Amino acid sequence: MLDFKIDEAKCTQCGLCSKECPTLIIDGKNGIPAIKEGKEKNCIRCQHCLAICPTGALSIFGKNPEDSIPVTSQIPSSDDMERLILTRRSVRKFKQEEVKTETIEQLLKSASHAPTGHNKNQVLLSLTHTREEMDKVRNIVYDAIKKANEKAPLEGSLSMYAAIQKMWETKGIDLIFRDAPHLIIATAPEKNSNGVADCVISLSYFELLANTMGIGTLWNGFLKAVMEQIATELKAAFGIPDDHRIGYIMVYGLPAVKYARSIQSDGLNLNEIKL
């Protein structure tokens, strides 16, 4: 059920909701808007109708328009956004202190607004909140690498993980997690063809807001490789459903290093389409 409701006292019958509906299931030509008969199944759950209503007269899926954030001119300027993007750095040195729980919840809220293919909203974020939890994850991962290498020596591109594990065991040098206090793993169902992209977009939203708060992030391909190629049992250990694929992984925390300027990009690989 869409639970599509109109507050007739607020509705101006402007028709914006019906015009904006991507699947054209809202009839707004004859007064108060309504869902066309038999068309509910075509809704893609985008909530554009709720977002565009200028008077907050429309509710769908039980959402109260008063709980939405109004769009005002108080958004970052293009210069501010560009500066944020250009000065973002991958952080590999973190302070020991934890990020406050309320800050993590705020970051997760931003990630929940990331777009997903067909608005399926199937991204699962598995995360740690405390350094104690993170330490347990760290130990489990390094132990899993050691056991896998003892069972059958890691070869080829995976052989370096045996050396990384040994460095942790003998010297306490953490090359996989970089001593970060927090971890977040984005996964989605294997059957979702957009799942990996959805995961990466979700973490990108998380990361950009984190950087505005002075929180450093690192996209963690090392752990992704371990979980996918060396110790697949880690998914179950972390409570990740068996039918989920890892989109990407990120560690984060308060950075122990401060960069003075942006890098200078070598540019993009571009293909100008000429037909």
Automatic annotation (TrEMBL):
CDD domains: nitroreductase_FeS-like. One of its GO terms (molecular function) is oxidoreductase activity. PROSITE patterns: 4FE4S_FER_1, 4FE4S_FER_2. Keywords: Iron, Iron-sulfur, Metal-binding, Oxidoreductase. It holds the Pfam family Fer4_10. It comes from the Bacteria. SUPFAM superfamilies: 4Fe-4S ferredoxins (SSF54862), FMN-dependent nitroreductase-like (SSF55469). InterPro entries: 4Fe4S_Fe-S-bd (IPR017896), 4Fe4S_Fe_S_CS (IPR017900), Nitroreductase (IPR029479), Nitroreductase-like (IPR000415). Residues 2-31, 33-63 form the 4Fe-4S ferredoxin-type domain. Belongs to the nitroreductase family. This is Nitroreductase family protein. It comes from Carboxylicivirga sediminis.
